[in-house]
Amino acid sequence: MNHPGHLIEVLLFIILLFLVWISFTNFGMVKRFLIGRPMRTAELSGQHTKLLWFIALPILSADLYSSVSYGPEAGMTELMGLGDGAKWYIIPITVSTVILLAILITSYIMGILAYPSGGGAYAIAKDNFKPRWVSLVASSSLLIDYILTVAVSVSAALEAISSAYPIVAPYETELAIGCVFLLLVMNLRGVAESAKIFAWPTIGFMVCMVIIIFTGLFECTRHGFVQSTTPPFGTVPKGISTLLVLKAFSSACSALTGIETISNAVPIFREPKQRNAIKTYIALGSITSFTLLGFAYLLYVKGISPSPQNTMLSQLTGLYFGHSIIYQIIIWFTFIVLILAANSTFTGFSQLAAIVAADGYLPRVLTNRGDRLGYSNGIIALAACASILILAFHAHTNALIPLYAIGVFLSFTVAQIGLVRRWLRVKGSRWKIKLAINSFGAFITAIVAVIFAVTKFMGGAWIVLVVLPILVFFSLTIRKHYNFIAQELHIDISKEFPEIREVTTIVLVSGVHRVVNSTISFAKSIGDNPIAVYVGFDDESINKMERKWEEWGYPCRLVVLKSKYRSVLEPLNRFIKIVEEKRGHEGHIHLIIPQFIPKRGWHNLLHNQTALQLRLWFLRHKDVVITTVPYHLKK
Amino acid sequence: MNHPGHLIEVLLFIILLFLVWISFTNFGMVKRFLIGRPMRTAELSGQHTKLLWFIALPILSADLYSSVSYGPEAGMTELMGLGDGAKWYIIPITVSTVILLAILITSYIMGILAYPSGGGAYAIAKDNFKPRWVSLVASSSLLIDYILTVAVSVSAALEAISSAYPIVAPYETELAIGCVFLLLVMNLRGVAESAKIFAWPTIGFMVCMVIIIFTGLFECTRHGFVQSTTPPFGTVPKGISTLLVLKAFSSACSALTGIETISNAVPIFREPKQRNAIKTYIALGSITSFTLLGFAYLLYVKGISPSPQNTMLSQLTGLYFGHSIIYQIIIWFTFIVLILAANSTFTGFSQLAAIVAADGYLPRVLTNRGDRLGYSNGIIALAACASILILAFHAHTNALIPLYAIGVFLSFTVAQIGLVRRWLRVKGSRWKIKLAINSFGAFITAIVAVIFAVTKFMGGAWIVLVVLPILVFFSLTIRKHYNFIAQELHIDISKEFPEIREVTTIVLVSGVHRVVNSTISFAKSIGDNPIAVYVGFDDESINKMERKWEEWGYPCRLVVLKSKYRSVLEPLNRFIKIVEEKRGHEGHIHLIIPQFIPKRGWHNLLHNQTALQLRLWFLRHKDVVITTVPYHLKK
């Protein structure tokens, strides 16, 4: 039996191992190659040039607009269980989605009016709610949804490609992980989200969608607006239930994720910022609504069914253009725009994580700027989480959809209620209208969130509903830890001052050789009377050591310990306990351990890492100062 | 769409994460629970009670005898490409295999006569060849084959189970990894290979095989020794070639692995050891031959074809006994014996690795005895390698077979040539007969090794033929490294003696707080004039630090450094370079870094691991002594 597939896999595995090896041994070089030279903090300012609104539109819309490629399909997939008779529901569902979109955009415009410097859900919640868990619900659910955006967008991108080229279908998961890795590297290099070059693919994709819709409508003028393929409208198929329709509706709502991007990005608009941002919202809302409605109508007219091998967008395009060059262009634009949607999420995630971390609710490392000034740790965390999701769900968009969007709608709701509280507090011009809009918005988004949670619960939403409170709880715990530390570390400088105390120096020796020589030399240089400790596993080696030490001229006091369990740690720990008891907890105990440093990293595998193990254990369990004296091998 | 499969996978994943978490936070406890209390070195002696030969027989035969369950199947699988007409070849192929078995056993008996204290291929080669790479070829190919034995046996065990219970078939890989993990834990606990309890399943399996064969033969007396299902004998199907027959032969030879176990274990026999070991060899050879021949004949008579869902042993058993309780018993005995075969390999691998490592050709850690006196590191390495193989080949026995057995035959050949050289050198009683036997054995095993390499090359043998020289090369490099170190570390105790040198103490501080207080306190206790170094990312923080230091009363000299690239490492390194240049390479440079030690391990994630990063970098790149002063947080 031949297994050519296995051969290729084994070869790829070997290449992968080799690359991992290279990366470990020449980490700095590989990093420099992938990421580029480090940048100074001073280069941070002046990154953003202010954008005209019609240029900002495509740049900021990749996330929302790209969702049209999977939203209607997700809705239709839910309906398919009931046969062709249920297909017509896609029309009212899409209309409801578009109405919801209009409500959301109106509410978001209120947000822009309230927070002209860019107010994400977290900032709005923080400003308007006293209990911090409310804003943490907003931030955590957004963070979760950003992770899902990457997983869903990249999976959908790969599904687009494998619809056109079925040969890549078996490798979807691997290729998706590869795309996430590329996005990771690009973002660590620091691709500015607002780079104008990102405008073109989105414009291209918009044009593609418009062409498809007009081609379809034109075709309808010739073959009729109800065709032989069109399923009957208005029939109520057996087994349909409100719950099922709502389930399809919530799946279709995944097309609405990414709506928050513009309101976060108000500062990058040219003056008047708010006006321009609002203009962009209206334009984006219009084109998205048009696309959703047109696309859903054509899917319905042509009676297209979802298929795991071929996305509905690809089926529809194939129907009008065959597998021509136009088809190829449309598929590639879909792919690129979905990848761009994932890309813009990287900035969103890492910035939000940094803001929350700066408030002390997430690990501080998330606020560190990397070599290229991006929040590298957040970027890496996002890539890692998204990869795990892609792996767990085998890059199936429709399997990920049930987890998706619930976070967005939760954070929408929190933000809207926050705005309601703000209008009640601040008032201002025409506040009653604004209040009404946001109250209605809050009401609707809350209902959608509940519909989501209920209809998608078993399908996967429960995962989000379990992870979310855990995340909020951890955030609060983290803040408590930081508060505690600040308290614990605080000193009264008028009362506390470094004192000189007695130091007992213990040097671990393993024989009489050059490493021991240099270690004892250091120990004697920093204080008198170090104690050398030798741990032997049998009487023979202990006697030999004592003899040799004598011959060497007894450079310092030697204590020999016998280990019954072949461990250095246990007898050494016993000895240190005795020293502690002898002198109370007054002085410092100072343990000096020599360590080999081979020239080549892998040579470390050839030496017992006793030094490392001892260091880790004693640091964790004892109040012992630990010194490592390196001995650099020449080879 | 519901994805119950995904739900279960996600749940299992969460449970796995939880277990990993528990293991990391309570490593000691989990280890104690799984592995048991540590044992004293003194408990090592007297582990072995000497065994009667007929008790040793089943204990030592699991490895060889269990192979009958997959060897004939592997051979038949190769023949299947040519249809039923080629099936009769299984008879001459099995006869050749049995003849080869007889030759090998005779040769191995010569080995026992030459090395009564137990001579593995490595020991024999070491004793009889000057160039060390020869014995390394023997040891490395055996080590590779031990890894394959675990992978193949466990995969075959799972295939037996999933033949009987198809419901577990999709989880074969996961379950196989689970079995390897169980074997790992068992072996870390230190299951003595010679435990008498292991005799019973093998005896049970032998009885099962004998029952099947006699049932089959009895059935033949009623329905004829050539039945309607029997394919025609002696026809030469179109497309058959010598190469193909040889390929099937080499696959069938995988039934011969594990033959070396008895000769390695001579010391555990009761006196007269050699006689008893030889008796055991003859008995084992007889029963294995009988089983192979009988099994192959029945497979042929019944015209059974290999199937990926149902092993041939399971098909044959099903034919005679249906899915009765007898069938279940046979399947479970097959499973247990195959797992026992993998189990005995753990001892073989770790002991061989320890012997080679003691000679300096493998990392020394392999010679360390763990808590339970087994060579834990070798055991862990074997489990890891076998798991990777199982993953890479999706636990398909037939995909692993082409890699298998080539190592065994290579080491057989080396050992036999070694024995030939020994007889020529030592001579002794009847040495000419022994010489003749081993020469013939060497000739035959060499030919089989070549047949293997040629016929299986593309199927996977190339992997072994690539890995083997790499392993040998690495072994030689490792020895060179150890030799070099021994030389480099050696001191002339009459000339070299620890000297007192000047020490420059640098303390890294991050502000004025309790941690800095305790660190400076230690620094001042071991020497006068430490230099505190503060690295700031902007002017503001630097000015603030200088002011605070002043207010505190200037406990020691303070140097402030500004980092343009938000890194502590780079300015600190610059500073240390300046210190080095100032004082030449005479004195010690001593860098003191404080480190937070939180009470809970996961709290480490909340602190920048600057201390750790600095320590790793400086130890590797600079001749700087590094001290960690722990600060234990109360929470």
From TrEMBL, chains A, B:
It is a multi-pass membrane protein. Gene3D superfamilies: Amino acid/polyamine transporter I (1.20.1740.10). The chain crosses the membrane at residues 6-30, 51-68, 88-115, 136-158, 164-185, 197-218, 238-259, 280-300, 320-342, 373-395, 401-423, 435-454, 460-478. It is found in: Membrane. Its main location: membrane. GO terms for molecular function: transmembrane transporter activity. Keywords: Membrane, Transmembrane, Transmembrane helix. Signal peptide: none annotated. It comes from the Bacteria. One of its GO terms (cellular component) is membrane. This is Amino acid transporter. It comes from Neobacillus massiliamazoniensis.
